[in-house]
Write a structure and sequence with these properties.
The chain is an alpha+beta fold. It is built from five helices and ten strands, in the order βαββαβββαβββααβ. Strands 1, 2, 3, 4, 5, 6, 7, 8, 9 and 10 form a ten-stranded mixed sheet that branches. The radius of gyration is 20 Å and the shape is globular.
Length: 260
Amino acid sequence: MKYSKNYVVCLQFLGFRFSGWQKQKNAKTLHEMVDKSLSYALGNDEFKTLGVGRTDAKVSANSYYFQLFMNTELIEDSFLSVFNENLSPDFRALSMKQVDASFNILNAAKQKEYHYYFSFGDKNHPYAAPFLTNIMDDLDIETMQKGANLFKGEHFFDKYCTKPSAKTILKRTIDSCEIVENTILKANFFPKKSYVLKVKGKGFLRYQIRLIMATLFELGKGNLTLEFIEDSLKEDNDKKYLRNIAPASGLQLYNVELDI
């Protein structure tokens, strides 16, 4: 079916209770919940939605976009009010913008910024579990910061991707990669000090950020070296992906710069 109206909607979500964005059988997904909420908000109007990308189970987003196709003219304030009323507390719609009929959210120029929040030492309060990964070993943060910087630039990420297809481009560029003290995400049940891995780039491979984070955890524990990371990013690496994957709940799609 062809639709005459084309909108881009920005929303936030807490992904801890969901099996990622993409619709799946026998699983509660973010896309399914968005479509159900839209069906109530829009009444009998037919529509179609398309997300800016997939997210893993339990991953949250501070800024996520989806494209809404329909035949009805929408007014932003009215739409957002009704949509938010019908969304569960895990979601909040922030904005809506009408775009050209030629716009495609998957092909549009974009840059994504991911954050991975973590702490180490004493076990965290259970309330922190949806937001913050806790490593109970001591971590050498200074060495981890040096390791994070090694991922910046153009590298071969064969070891930082699971189950790539024959068409997957594994030579990718990361625009920035750093570990800093967390001053963004705060709660009175968080530990006194926590950290965040910030990674920016135009596109990421399956589990790439979580594989990078897991490698940096092993570096911080003293189980890996900076030289290991350098070698793992070279063209002549052994092409075997790393087995340790950091938990999903610490990962957040922090921002998407979308060219609309």
